[in-house]
Design brief:
2 domains, binds iron/sulfur cluster, TIM Barrel
Length: about 375
């Protein structure tokens, strides 16, 4: 699996603390550095295999089709992709134009992930998103028209001022657009973001927890009714349309991450990352000093628990050492008794009630 971080956004959304720059002047030199990083890590890229490639950000569609072609041409010259590789590009609705999609035809992109977030224009404006509900709908129509039907849309709930009715409408509308994949995240109040500062000043209010839970329940029920599998806490897909790339992260598949801030994992004990520093990345011609972390057995246990309990399959107790298995079972027992977890054979997973309080359950399972 290969991940490429594209650290550019046209402007910054109020709630976001992801790493990205709003300086388009740096795009060309960034791409040149990225190609150099690919050359310098070609062996690692081959070992990680390009059965899935994911361009995330930031806003990868901001680079424009020509730069994206340059990136893919270079990657494909170094690493053979498999014929059924899943190649995902994150897009923002305002970048999806007929010209852009025409230019994308010469790339291997076959899956689009697009952040819609809400269909309420007032909320979109408040969050400083760059699109309207109508533009999101038109972007989906353009993507369908261009043959990009393997489409995942993102929504957000628990937004300040968002009502249950608004949310019901958003979920129903997106599910009626014929998409095979939906991701929905509750708003995270990240310290230091403009939205967090507004919260501290009393200019916005957090959504009540009960309302967020209601929204989540409505989401789960609606996605199920639409025939989707709830395969991860925040992800829903029609049968056979799960994100292979993200599923790989949850199954500890090795991956190589390129670009500033991107993480890599050898599938065993070594996790590494490029610093989240675009200027430093460019200065080091795509080969900055990487942060390297060796995972010990306890860290591996905790990672395993955190990732696998997010999924519908759950935690395979047989994959743990005897010591960690005993510990996991003893910590899970009160949650099993309370109906928040269920054990079937060697598999331990969260029930729907458990998913609502997943952070608490997972924190109990930590060492
Ligand atoms: S477009 Fe995405 S990455 Fe960029 S600021 Fe908005 S939420 Fe963050």
């Amino acid at each position: 699996m290969i991940y490429i971080h594209i650290p550019f956004c046209k402007s910054r959304c109020l709630y976001c603390d992801f790493f990205s720059s709003t300086s388009p002047a740096l795009m060309d030199v960034f791409v040149a550095s990225l190609l150099k990083e690919m050359d310098g890590r070609a062996e690692e890229l081959r070992a990680a295999r390009a059965d899935t490639v994911y361009l995330g950000g930031g806003t990868p569609s901001q680079l424009g089709a020509e730069r994206l072609r340059t990136i893919f041409d270079h990657l494909l010259a170094l690493v053979e992709t498999e014929s059924d590789a899943e190649v995902t590009l994150e897009c923002n609705p305002d970048d999806v134009t007929a010209d852009f999609l025409h230019g994308l035809r010469d790339t291997p992109v076959n899956r689009i992930s697009m952040g819609v977030q809400t269909l309420d224009d007032g909320l979109l404006r408040m969050l400083r998103r760059r699109h309207t509900a109508r533009e999101a709908r038109e972007a989906v129509a353009l993507l369908h028209g261009a043959g990009y039907t393997n489409l995942s849309l993102d929504l957000m709930y628990g937004l300040p001022g968002q009502t249950l009715e608004m949310w019901r409408h958003d979920v129903a509308a997106l599910l009626s657009w014929g998409i095979p994949h939906l991701s929905a995240y509750s708003l995270q109040w990240e310290e230091g973001t403009p939205l967090y500062i507004m919260l501290e000043r009393g200019e916005v209010e957090e959504a009540p927890e009960e309302l967020s839970l209601e929204m989540y329940r409505c989401l789960v029920a609606s996605a199920r009714e639409a025939g989707m599998e709830h395969y991860e806490i925040s992800n829903f897909a029609l049968p056979g349309r799960r994100s292979r790339h993200n599923s790989g992260y949850w199954r500890d598949v090795p991956y190589a991450g390129l670009g500033p801030g991107a993480h890599s994992y050898d599938g065993k004990y070594v996790r590494s990352s490029n610093p989240s520093d675009l200027a430093g990345y460019i200065k080091a011609a795509g080969m900055p000093v990487r942060n390297v972390e060796m995972l010990d057995v306890d860290m591996l246990y905790e990672e395993r628990v955190l990732k696998s309990l997010r999924t519908a399959e759950g935690l395979n107790l047989a994959s743990l050492s005897a010591k960690h298995r005993d510990y996991a079972l003893s910590m899970a027992m009160p949650h099993i008794m309370a109906g928040r977890m269920v054990r079937i054979g060697n598999m331990l997973r969260l029930t729907e009630e458990g998913i609502f309080v997943s952070n608490d359950v997972m924190s109990d399972m930590m060492l």
